[in-house]
Amino acid sequence: MRIPQTAPKLRDLMAEVKQPERMMELISRTREAKNQRHYLHWDKLRRYTPPPGVSHREWWMVQKFSRMDALKPIPLKDKAQNPFQFAVTELVMEELHQIDLGAGGVVSIPEPITNPQTRDRYLVRSLMEEAITSSQLEGAVTTREVAKEMIRSGRKPRDNSEQMILNNYVTMLRIRELKTSALSPELVFLIHRLVTEKTLDDPTAAGRFRRSDEKRVVGDDFGQVFHDPPPAEELTERMAAMCAFANGQTPGYFVHPAVRAVILHFWLAYDHPFVDGNGRTARALFYWAMLHNNYWLFEFVSISNILRKAPVKYGRSFLYTETDDNDLTYFIIAQTQVIRRAIRELHAYIERKTAELKDVESHVRALDLFNHRQVEILRNALKHPGQRYTFSSHQKSHNVVYQTARTDLLDLGKRGVLDKRKKGKQMVFVAPADLSERLLKLEKESGA
Length: 448
Hints:
Layout (H helix, E strand, L loop, with lengths): L9 H7 L3 H8 L2 H5 L7 H4 L10 H13 L3 E6 L5 E4 L3 H15 L6 H4 L4 H19 L6 H10 L6 H19 L6 H12 L21 E2 L5 E3 L7 H12 L10 H15 L6 H15 L10 H7 L1 H12 L6 H38 L5 H12 L4 E2 L1 H8 L3 H13 L4 E5 L2 E5 L4 H12 L2
Antiparallel strand pairs: 1-2, 3-4, 5-7, 6-7
Helix pairs in contact: 6-17, 8-10, 8-15, 10-11, 10-14, 11-14, 12-13, 13-14, 13-17, 15-17, 16-17, 17-18, 17-21, 19-20
């Protein structure tokens, strides 16, 4: 990844304009710049053709003028004690509105997630997805199939990559429990210990600040440094300020909860308070913030899955902020778009699975292996994994004699489409999570 060219300072650009009339002419273009939808960084803008009669540097000055009134400072400061700032552009407002509709309320929430009998299947899928892709962003190389098998089977990790993934999975589960707690340094340290368990060269570095002799920079394999974080001596004060911000105590004006969560993500990554695991901790804090502010759908959403598909864009949004007067708007735009896309992908996934379910239902009806009562059980079982059926419940549901109900269920158990179990003296038949796969396999074997 290439470091973007640092944006010219507004004071330097103004000093270049010698005639007052020219300055007034450029200022008059500010309204036009405010109406632009895109929030271009200097590194991009300098590659485009400027408006007629305006140089690139003058064009950039107009952009800076148009953004001045909207920018608001936050307590996060850079190493020179200059505050970071952000603006809520029209594009961000639009994204936030869609996030509010799609992740905080009940509008268009897919039924499988509101259904208590199916929601856990989607929850586990999301937690695994986030655990795997967040680890892959940090260099984990285990395949998704192997990682999922490890989590589902409960076996111990075989290498560092699998340990990272398991740690992330455990962390996401714990964040669901911690979402009502206020953020504190102790909670941040706990999250860091969870994500770094058994993965650090120095195990004592888990859950504590990096020391002055453990300076870390963010860079690539070729020695290029992208970020040199603040000194270790400032971390205690910085962490206290970050927690106050996360808990809504600062600043003295309203910050949309999703924007606050995005800034918290950036803040931890910027301060880089730990020897390792900063990226995973930052993303975990983002999830804490969203759930803390009642964006309950984020139990099912994976942002790392989106970030992994465009890691350069993710990294560049950090660099744009640091190379243009600490303007967090670049990072906020990028991350709100990621959030929106993650929500859309969740809806698309559920729609796809719902369509597959309907397809399987049509196959079930087409199979001559089952009678109409058994078909009804299977249709219900497809929608409700884990559902339990007994001879008595089936008898009552279909108004048949006990022997008929017994024959129906024993046949379904024999064919392997329901799991037969003993609960005390009672026989219980349970709908398996992989019922659709079992039915399709049975269809192929029967030649239907």
